[in-house]
Amino acid sequence: MNQLSEQVLHHLSVAAPHFVSGSELSQLLNVSATAIWKHITQLRHEGYAIEAVTGRGYRLLAMSERAVAAEVQPLLTTASFGRFFHYYDEVTSTNLLARELAQSGTPEGTVVVADTQRAGRGRMGRSWVSPSGVNLYFSLVLRPQVPLFRVPQVTLLVAAAVHQAIKKLAPDVALGIKWPNDLLVQGKKVAGILCEMFSEPEQVHFVIVGIGINLNQKEFAPELEDRATSLLCETALFFSRPQLLAEVLNAFEPLYQQWLGENDLSFILPYLEEHASLTAKEVVIEQGNRTISGTVVGLAQGGELRLITSDGESLLVASGEAHLRQQ
Fold it and tell me: Which residues, as ranges, make up the DNA-binding region of this protein (predicted)?
């Protein structure tokens, strides 16, 4: 969507449900009536329902429900998150594009959103299946001025924000946070987080936070049916992608700003503990060629998973992939 189309949409959305005449739009934007009509046609092509009545003008009947700036930014309460906004119909990966923007100096809070990804990525090099028109795929650029050892805490901080945002729109969903980066409903993944840090030994340059949330996907490939779900599958309701994106950014920015002034995750730890899905479960943690087994007893202030082994030894696990132990 180009800048003039965004301006036409803005004036229509402000006036809705009332009409705006073509001559008024022409005067406001200093373009011809023919140009206004071309942008109306383009907006309709992009999914906006716009009524045209001779002698009355144009009226916006429905938004496109795509997570574009024109639909997300009016819902934001943030100071910086989402204020620089890039939307694409299709990309290789939003994290890759966000990385390129960060390397070019884009400010903290820049968001990259895509309707679909050709090569969406999850942790451990896994792919993230990204069908178009149904889910939410986006990345956020952060520039935290903190010691390197604190950066892994961002993943759980984001998980808390995503949990808060989803629960605001779907309060009855039994949503849990699976350490360190997934959100589950009845053991099935509904959202995932991939944080990538770019740094030197003594300095963090930037962090890219990639988030995928399954909103309105009706069905999954056979190999994913027992491991993935969507909010639609769990509630039989459709969810607004622009609204959920705005809710995530609105929830995350204050958490992030508070975290910058803290020494660890202590301030959000009670929330993470309350909604943790692994507590009291026997798990196996994969760390490359090494595995660690034990019972989860909680989270440490730095975000590490607290385990008790079968020998009674207490461990703090800072990284790895957690799986429920097969009985």
Answer: 22-41
Task: Tell me the CA end-to-end span of the chain in Å, nearest whole number.
Answer: 53
Considering the domain 69-274 in this protein, what is its CATH number?
3.30.930.10
| Residue 117 annotated as part of some ligand binding site | yes
Domain segments of the chain as ranges: 3-62, 69-274, 282-324
**pLDDT tens per residue across span 271-326:** 999 999 999 999 999 988 899 999 999 999 999 999 999 899 999 999 999 988 87
Q: What is the DSSP string of 272-321?
A: HHHTBSSTT-EEEEEETTEEEEEEEEEE-TTSPEEEE-TTS-EEEE-S-E
Fold classified for 282-324: SH3 type barrels. (2.30.30)
Q: Is 123 annotated as belonging to a binding site?
A: yes
Is 237 strand, coil or helix? coil
Which residue shows structure tokens 């026997």?
282
Cα separations (Å) of 128 from 141, 192, 313? 19, 9, 36
Q: Does the annotation flag 93 for ligand binding?
A: yes
